[in-house]
Amino acid sequence: MDNLVTFLQEKESEMLEVLKQLVEIESPSRNKAMVDVLGRKIAELLATYVGGQATFIENKEYGDHLRFEWGKGEEQILLLTHMDTVWPKGILETMPFRVEGDKAYGPGTFDMKGGIVQGMFALHALSQLEVPLTKKVVLLVTSDEEIGSGSSRVYIEQEAKKSKYVLVLESSAPQGALKTSRKGVGLFRVKVKGVASHAGIEPEKGVSAIGELGQQIGYLHQLTDFAKGTTVNVGVIKGGSSSNVVAAEAEAEVDLRVISQSEADRVVPMIMNLQPFLEGASIEVTGGLNRPPFERTPQVEQMFVLAKKLAETHLQIDLQEMLSGGGSDGNFAAPYAPTLDGMGPVGDGAHARHEHLIISQMPVRSALLALLIKELGM
Ligand SMILES: [Zn+2]
Fold first, then answer.
1. Ligand 1 centroid – CA 146 distance (Å)
2. 319-344, pLDDT tens digit by residue?
3. Which residue from 171, 142, 134 is spatially nearest to 158, judged by alpha carbons?
4. Kindly report the CA angle at 71 between 65 and 75, in degrees rounded to 5?
C-alpha cells in the first residue's frame, strides 16, 4: 500500500509543473471564454495522466462544467472540485505564479487548482499502480463555485445522489485539518419603502425608510446566537437620496449562517417575514437558504476516522477535523451522501494576495486521497 505514497512522492516536481500550468490560465468565474480554456486544458491533462472519459456539460453563461469518469463499477465515489477563482482577469501581472522555498504562490493555488492537481495525481497513481477498485470514480470540475454554484448545483446534487461517498478537494483548514461539517449559508435582500418628504418643511409627512431599516438591522443582529452557531450579519446597506429628504427607500443585504437544518427552519422564516415597525413603511424580503448545512453525521464521522487512520499509518500525520463557517459545494453534496471536505491543499490565504500552498504537502495529500479512494472503493 505504501507504494502509492512512494509513487506520489516522486511526482512532486511534476505536480508543481502541472499546478503552474493551471494557475497561469486565469479563470475568473464570470469570464466564460477564459474558464473554458482552462477546462479544455484540465481534460487534456486528465487524458494524459489518467485516461478515463471526459464530458463537458455546456453552460451558456459561465464556463462549461467538466465531468470526468474513470474506472468501472455499479457504485461511484465522487470527487468535487471547481476551476474558477475569485481573481479578476489580468491578476497574473501583479500576482504571478511563483515559488519561494516550500511555498507556491499565485491566484487559485490554494483555492483550488492545487486540489485539482492532487486529485488528478491520486487517480494517476491508482491507475499506474493498477490498484483494484470495484467502484468508479467521478470527478466534477465546476466553473461557478466562487459565485454560488448557481449553474452547477443541479449536477453536483445529481452526482451526489448516485454516489456512495463524496470527497471535496477544497483547501484544508489550518494545519491541514479536514472539514467534517460546514455551516449552511442564507442570503437575503431586504427592501424597505417609506414616504419621501422635505426634512425641513414637512418632515411629519414622511416615513423614513432608513429609520425603518435601522430598526430592522437591530432586530436582525439580535437573531445571532453564538452558542447555537447561528449568525446574522447585515453586510451592505444603502438608501436615501439627500440629507434634506426623508428617505423613501433603503435596502440591506443579509448573510445568515446556521449549523443545522432545524436551525435554518427556525430562523429563515423570521427573516423572510420581517414586519415593519413604522406605520406607512413596507418591507419586501427576497432570498433564502443558498447552501444547506453540511452536518457531521455518523457516516461522515466514520469516513473521517478512516482518513485519520490512513494518515497516521501511511503518512505519519495526526489528521484533525473542524467545522467551517464557510460554505462549499460540499454543502450541496452532504444531504445525499457522506462527505469529507478540505481534502485539498495545505496552505493559506484563500481569496487573499498571499494565497499559497505547501509544495511538499502536495504529494502527501494526494497520497491520502489515493489511499482513501482505495479503501472506500474496495
Ligand atoms: Zn474553493
1. 7
2. 999 999 989 999 999 999 999 999 99
3. 142
4. 85
Q: The domain 184-291 is classified under which CATH number: 3.10.450.60, 1.10.10.60, 3.30.70.360, 1.10.10.10? A: 3.30.70.360
Give me ligand 1 centre to Cα 3, in Å.
30
Q: What sign for the dihedral angle of Cα 69, 72, 73, 78?
A: negative
Burial of 43-71, coded b for 16+ CB within 10 Å and e otherwise, reads bebbeebbebebeebebeebbbbbbbebb
User: How many other CB atoms are there within 10 angstroms of residue 340's CB atom?
Assistant: 23
- CA atoms of 342 and 365, how far apart (whole Å): 10
Say which of 26, 36, 64, 84 is annotated catalytic: 84
Cell representation of residue 339: 462527505
301 catalytic? Reply is no
Give the Cβ contact number of residue 315 at 10 Å.
Answer: 17
- Report in angstroms the alpha-carbon separations of 355 from 35, 99, 100: 20, 12, 12
Is residue 145 annotated as a catalytic residue, yes or no? yes
Question: Ligand 1 (ion): which residues have CB within 5 A?
Answer: 111-112, 170
Q: pTM for the whole thing?
A: 0.89
User: Which residue matches cell numbers 439580535?
Assistant: 222
Number of H helices, E strands in the chain: 10, 18
Query: Which residue is listed with cell 424597505?
Result: 192
Domain residue limits, the chain: 2-182+294-376, 184-291
- Alpha-carbon distance of 43 to 33, in angstroms, equals 16
Report pLDDT digits (tens) over 228-241: 999 999 999 999 99
